[in-house]
Amino acid sequence: MNIIETHNLSKQYQQGELSVNALTGISMNLPRKSFAALLGPSGSGKSTLLNICGLIDKPSNGKLFFCGEDITHASEKELTKIRRNNLGFIFQGFNLVPVMSVFDNIEYPLILSGVDKKARKERVNAMLDMVGLTELKKHLPDQISGGQKQRVAIARALITQPSLVIADEPTANLDSRTATGIIQLMHKMHRELSTSFIIATHDERMSSQCDSALQLHDGELQ
Amino acid sequence: MKWLKLAMKNVLRNRRRAIVTMLITAVGVAAILIGGGFANFTYVSLKEMAARSSGHLIVAHKDYFEQEESIPMEYGLSDYKTLAKTLKADDEVRYAIPRVEFSGLISNGEKSTIFMGSGVDAKYEFKVKGPFLQIEQGNVLSKRERSDDPKVMLGLDLAKSLNANVDDSLTLISTTVDGGLNAVDVTVQGIFSTGMPEVDKRSIIVSIDTAQSVLLTEKVSSLALHLRDTESTFTKYDELSEKHTELAWQTWLDEAFFYVGVKNLYNRIFGLLGIIIVMMVFFSIYNTVNMSVVERTREIGTLRAIGTYSTEIMRNFILEGMFIGLIGAITGITIAFLTSLGLSIADIQMPPPPGRTTSYPLVIDVPTFLYLSTAFLSATICILAAWLSSYKASKKPIVGALSHV
Description:
The structure holds two protein chains of two kinds.
Chain A: E1 2-15, E2 18-31, E3 35-39, H1 46-53, E4 61-66, E5 69-70, H2 76-86, E6 87-90, H3 102-112, H4 117-131, H5 146-158, E7 164-168, H6 176-193, E8 196-200, H7 204-209, E9 212-217, E10 220-221
Parallel strand pairs in A: 3-8, 3-9, 6-7, 7-8
Antiparallel strand pairs in A: 1-2, 1-4, 4-5, 9-10
Chain B: H1 2-11, H2 15-54, E1 57-61, H3 80-88, E2 93-107, E3 112-120, H4 122-129, E4 134-138, E5 151-155, H5 156-162, E6 169-175, E7 181-193, H6 197-200, E8 203-207, H7 208-215, E9 222-227, H8 233-243, E10 247-251, H9 252-255, H10 257-295, H11 297-305, H12 310-346, E11 349-350, E12 360-361, H13 368-395, H14 398-402
Parallel strand pairs in B: 3-8, 5-7
Antiparallel strand pairs in B: 1-9, 1-10, 2-3, 2-6, 2-9, 4-7, 5-8, 6-7, 11-12
């Protein structure tokens, strides 16, 4: 079964009186356990498609299926529930909560899911071990490096063992050495946890690690 | 618990702003409590003064309060002693004190002036008046006054007008119940002040016997019932007025014109101030939470993306607002408590209110319900302000929130 399936998806934005087509006729399938790259130049619609796949934006037309279920017209509440239980996000700017420690940032999605305290502690500690941040668990995001922040973001995205992780330019804000480490970490997590990834990227090292690639140009799949 | 911790951490993100907002809330809460405490002390004092002056309940002939008497004591109570005994049998009634209200002329031999007299039972009357009747010279009437040596107490301004001092002899002249004139010589026993010059200019107090001998009557004007608890006035009024329908009944409130006037005035003044303070606190918290919401728009977008419901986002901001309100309220309550304590030690006197001559102590008496209701109000304002400012942000499209700079 596919994690994500789209049928003739399109998205228009209104800019003043102008209607801009960000995506046109997108039909695609993202199978389970895939590690897919979403490629394309700036303005090609990568982020828009990623947002729709991440259920944080809605298509203007077409159909969207998540794990076989038609969610094109799902309510915001239903979409939030799906995101909470089945999706993880990795942002270009890390987007950690600055007042929460590394541990707390990773723990947050588990609190939302209602996992009890003891289980949360065990799972967060195991995840910290996997991403190599055990020593820094009490640090605040401001007290760690960019690469470490992105590791925290990866850990946060994977802590609920989601079906799909959406990553938007995860290495764009990192130097090349740190970026390589992050790519390796994401690949390792994909292998060990069997989580699907869809990654919008310009980074060739990242795309070369992916088992499939979707190429976008002017809002259309190539 | 996690949410409370998170809210506290978020409140402390911008410490200076949070502290200023808490201080504004604290000052607002303290101002409401101090103003309310002062008004409450005034109400309680005036209520007590009015009730002690007139009695909690006043019972009279059924036409006494409605009709004008064509001759003195036309609507007086005849068998008042039996009635007083019957009413006194009620456990909640402490005293049933007879009163004779009369008027006439008072003369020192050279000058005569109008008086408004009260014939009272000295045994109980001065006990219930307590500190609300200020003796300027001499003493109150004796419980065992000799019938051949009647005494009088004069209002301060009346005594000045007649140039009378203690032990001076004066003459009371009044219309009797038969319509004739009668005069009785009295000796000044004391000079009193009610604090109201208009009253002190005309008031005299004599014993019931003296008043009855002036009017040539056995009747009294009314009975003043003093209850053990002022709060039971109105239930007792309902009970007794239903039981004794042949009589007319009033409560202390019917005669407490000054109390009603002051209460109406203070309610308006302090009510308006209260509304201004509440608005000030509301906008201060609204502004603080709003700034925080704007600064954290991107974070809100992130939290929404990873599965936080918009109601949960709002709840977090509401908790933050509640923290600010709670800490502000606790600080405000502490300020108000210390202020009231300080004022009671300092013994500051307020200038006499309009129409009065006596000053009164500045006391802040904050009742428990005012503490609780102000704390509740503060929390409610904070919740409302936080809800209003976070509602819009929590409903903002996630993509828009994530791209917020």
